[in-house]
Amino acid sequence: MTQVANRRRGDEEGAVEDLASAVGEEKGAVADLASAVGEERSAVAEKTIMRA
User: Fold this and answer.
1) Do the domain assignments include residue 48?
2) Its domain of life (predicted)?
């Protein structure tokens, strides 16, 4: 029983690590998107200034 319990615990720990990694990747993707939005806003502001 102890081996089975240890194996399950290991599987659960692995699943938690996988989930944490996926969350980290999502946060990275959100940061990339926010950066791209910021760059777009800057480009729009520059165009607006150039037209004025």
Assistant:
1) yes
2) Bacteria
